[in-house]
Specification:
This protein is of the alpha+beta class. The protein is 27% helix and 30% strand. The relative contact order is 0.12.
């Protein structure tokens, strides 16, 4: 009995029959869970690879679909698998550890990890600030801002949705092309407003339908939501940003020290 990943391009197969024992006291769904977890841990099931559907897994392992479903749910809850709406179930990619002690752009963060950053502009508008934007950017209601919404990727995979609001007076000219090929922080720095300080608030949330579609997640999947206000060296407010990061890919790290 073998388990063959649906994404495999070779004739190799993964033997799980030796990991399962129907006479053991351990419930069968836990045996399937433990067997798949070991294959993920040792790299036999590669990061990003697709698993067969529940029916195929059940047939190949000689167990019920309920058993397979329970095992997959445990793996998903543990962050080892991810379900992508309309695509199937995949082995989760390695997680990104984001320190909160240093201020850097998404692009710089990804490059420091050997990943190719990318951005797709979902919307870009020149508009009056909302009350929330005006308050966080210290602007008058009659001012104007650039409101930018982007899908951020690493090696082509969606990781986050960012909405950035920047005062028009700080960044008079901007284009979709520049925002897709480069960094917003780099553009601010070129204009004499390098970001040097920020305050950031984090909370847990869940993906709604549109967010799940963009991030290739299931509706209700866990997200890390952040709100950040950024200043330059002169104390000028540069950006008010709201972001949603994939909870299966991101960990935020805070360093603490005793008094």
């Amino acid at each position: 009995m073998t388990l063959i990943p649906s994404s495999s391009t070779t004739s190799s197969s993964l033997a799980l029959d030796q990991m399962l024992s129907k006479g053991a006291s351990t419930p069968m769904y836990l045996q399937v869970y433990q067997g798949l977890a070991r294959l993920i841990e040792d790299g036999t099931l590669e990061r990003g690879s697709a698993l067969p559907g529940e029916r195929d897994l059940a047939l190949q392992l000689g167990v019920s679909r309920v058993t397979v479903r329970q095992a997959l749910r445990l793996l998903e809850e543990g962050g080892q698998l991810v379900r992508r709406q309309g695509s199937g179930t995949f082995v989760a990619e390695s997680r990104i550890l984001q320190p909160l002690s240093a201020l850097s752009s998404f692009s710089d963060d990804m490059r420091s990890r050997g990943l190719q950053p990318g951005a797709r502009v979902l919307s870009l508008e020149r508009t009056r600030p909302s009350p929330q934007e005006a308050m966080n950017l210290a602007l008058k209601p009659s001012s104007e801002v650039w409101r930018l919404k982007r899908l951020r990727t690493a090696d082509g995979q969606p990781l986050a949705i960012e909405i950035s609001s920047v005062p028009l007076e700080t960044l008079p000219q901007v284009s979709r092309a520049a925002l897709e090929s480069g960094s917003l922080y780099a553009l601010l720095k070129e204009g004499g407003h390098a970001p040097v300080r920020a305050m950031q608030h984090l909370r847990a949330t869940a993906a709604d339908f549109e967010t799940a579609r963009l991030l290739e997640l299931s509706v209700g999947a866990p997200l890390l939501a952040t709100e950040r206000v950024t200043w330059d060296a002169a104390g000028k407010t540069l950006e008010y940003a709201r972001s949603q990061y994939r909870g299966d890919r991101y960990d935020f790290l805070v360093e603490l020290s005793g008094g």
